[in-house]
Amino acid sequence: MTTQEEQTRAGLRFPAGFAWGAATSAYQIEGAVTEDARGTSIWDTFTKTPGRVVNGHHADVAIDHYHRYREDVGIMAELGLSAYRFSVSWPRVQPSGSGKINPKGLDFYKRLTDELRSHAIDPWLTLYHWDLPQELEDKGGWPNRDTAYRFAEYAAAVHEALKDHVHTFSTVNEPWCAAFLGYASGEHAPGRREPQNAIRGAHHLNLAHGLAVQAMDARRVGGCVNLYAVTPATDSAEDLDAARRIDGLQNRFFLDALLTGRYPEDVLSDLPVEIDFIEPGDMKTISAPIDVLLVNYYSRFTVSGAPGGKASAAAAPTDTASPWVGSEHVSFVNGGRPVTAMGWEIDESGLVEILTRVARDYPPIPMVVSENGAAFDDHLDDGRVHDRERQAYVEAHLGACKEAIEAGVPLEGYFAWSLMDNFEWAWGYGKRFGLVHVDFETQERLLKDSALWYSEIIRQNRRHEPTDS
Ligand code: FCB
């Protein structure tokens, strides 16, 4: 028995059928932004606006996945992945965000999903990973209720075209980021700093999720949230209140809405806005039954209500306002843990905490970890990337998944973020999250040590599974 086998047996042995995945998103990898009649997205506009992205980087070419998808699926097959989570670019499929569908855009995702299935890799399709068609932003973006209805229309069109190709559909990736980084802090596209509109946007993103679930009537559909473990810096009343607030806006605002059809009262009363945008029936729509909850997890926040700390967990690379609408006074303090290249504290116990909490506090719902991973400063060394820190990060978090499963959490899969190095939003190409190294000049792909290790864990786990078909 090799060391790897011992390791798998000892620690990282998962139930048969566990989804072994990796994740990406359209704007971060595809490139080809003007090809085949694709429309303009808010990220195309945002990246071309000076001062928004480090070094003025944009994703016009990104890692050229639009042209290299076959090679990339080949890499997934080499890794032994059983599932791949990607997103559809809304402006590629429906260039103006309403009306006419662009068949060439849909064709790309048909080719991609065919390729995946020919390698027995289950396609997990995300409908929205932040690239709103610019024309919809021009009409008000997510703070405009109509955008939610446009999203449901788009979702129905994608579902109709791809329902026989896709394993699981999911709606909105990380609505917290889309609303609060897009419309309050301005760190993400469209870069607005309008706290009250961010809240409206958050509600409309939730509504868009529910309307899409209903419109697709899909065999398997999920919603996606990014959850953080949140700890008060001390047990003072003001720190406990800070933790309640940040946990409320980051986690409960979305979990409660999607899974119980209510917004938490305490969070609503923290918000500096008249709650006049929730229409009758909205909460029932938002909590339309789903088959799986996709949980993205990266880190833990330690927060304080005392003045003088940092305004966010990791300073944004650009000039931004606070995303914490109504709780701008809360500060984020150093929890004393090692950090990744993003400055995010590494804490796998937070993953156990949030998974067991969802299982305990909400109606039963199968879950997957739909994103988890870390940026580090990688170095190419004689054709290898010895990214031991990333491997250790993934190993620790897989251990956390195992622990959660043993505690009774219905966890059905894990998707590493990311399959490949790519365009990391406001940070441009400066932060590498990939299991696979990409040379951004030549587009050459190279498996990092973490990828080789991950594939070995997958191989050991899948060895005893019935052959995929
Ligand atoms: C998540 C995003 C993903 C990636 C990772 C690092 O918030 O969903 O696109 O940027 O963070």
TrEMBL record:
The active site is at 371 (nucleophile). Gene3D superfamilies: Glycosidases. Keywords: Carbohydrate metabolism, Cellulose degradation, Glycosidase, Hydrolase, Polysaccharide degradation. It comes from the Bacteria. GO terms for molecular function: beta-glucosidase activity. PROSITE patterns: GLYCOSYL_HYDROL_F1_1, GLYCOSYL_HYDROL_F1_2. InterPro entries: GH, GH_1_N_CS, Glyco_hydro_1, Glyco_hydro_1_AS, Glyco_hydro_1_beta-glucosidase. It catalyses: Hydrolysis of terminal, non-reducing beta-D-glucosyl residues with release of beta-D-glucose. It is an enzyme of class 3 (hydrolase). Its EC number is 3.2.1.21. NCBIfam families: BGL. Belongs to the glycosyl hydrolase 1 family. This is Beta-glucosidase.
